[in-house]
Design a protein that fits this description.
Largest sheet: none
Distance between the termini: 78 Å
Shape: globular
Oligomer: single chain
Structural class: mainly alpha
Helix content: 55-70%
Number of helices: 8
Radius of gyration: 23 Å
Number of strands: 0
Strand content: under 5%
């Protein structure tokens, strides 16, 4: 077990309230960081997605492993921003900073995220009889109308532990037809 050095005693966390305008200023500053180093930030994000894709491909542990290491990679993005504020350019090596520091704090945080998702899914099962869980586990459930398929497609894009993949889903459409029901194209002119 790793012990913290004696001089690294826990400190009290000071919480400071800021008005909403400060939040907008942070967003402006964040965009400024991105604007000054667009290519390195895009490379960092692409590297992150490639790493998650590789982790997801691991048999048995892929999906869960990707969820466990997300907080570790979040520290990497923070390290890239911190370094850029101090004059360095963001690089893929920053992405792995969480593995070099605080790993044993970040991995349990990822496990806690999985536990919380499981609790949330269990709670939804109490309300919907397990339908949401079934939809997330089966990408093409039968018996859904067009509106439900759009919702399912959206849920499958954001479900935890899975890299976003483009999917084609049935979209609800309005049918325009003549008096005999034959479909026709609507025109802008009468």
């Amino acid at each position: 077990m790793l012990d913290a050095p004696m001089g690294d005693a826990p400190r009290e966390t000071v919480f400071t309230r800021h008005d909403a305008a400060r939040g907008l200023e942070w967003m402006r500053q964040s965009y400024g960081l991105f604007r000054r180093a667009r290519v390195p930030w895009v490379a960092l994000v692409l590297c992150y997605y490639i790493v998650l894709l590789v982790i997801n491909l691991l048999p048995y542990v892929g999906g869960i492993g990707a969820m466990v290491v997300r907080p570790v990679f979040a520290v990497g993005f923070l390290a890239a921003a911190w370094n850029q504020e101090r004059g360095a350019r963001p690089s893929p090596r920053h992405l792995f900073q969480g593995f070099r520091s605080n790993l044993w704090v970040l991995v349990p945080l990822g496990v806690l995220i999985i536990v919380n998702i499981a609790i949330a899914m269990g709670a939804t099962s109490l309300v919907d009889g397990g339908r949401l869980v079934g939809v997330l586990m089966n990408p093409a459930p039968e018996g859904l109308d067009a509106d439900e398929r759009v919702i399912v497609g959206g849920l499958q894009q954001v479900r935890p532990g899975v890299t976003v993949e483009p999917k084609l889903v049935d979209m609800p459409t309005s049918r325009i037809g003549d008096q005999h029901g034959t479909p026709r194209v609507a025109s802008a002119t009468p």
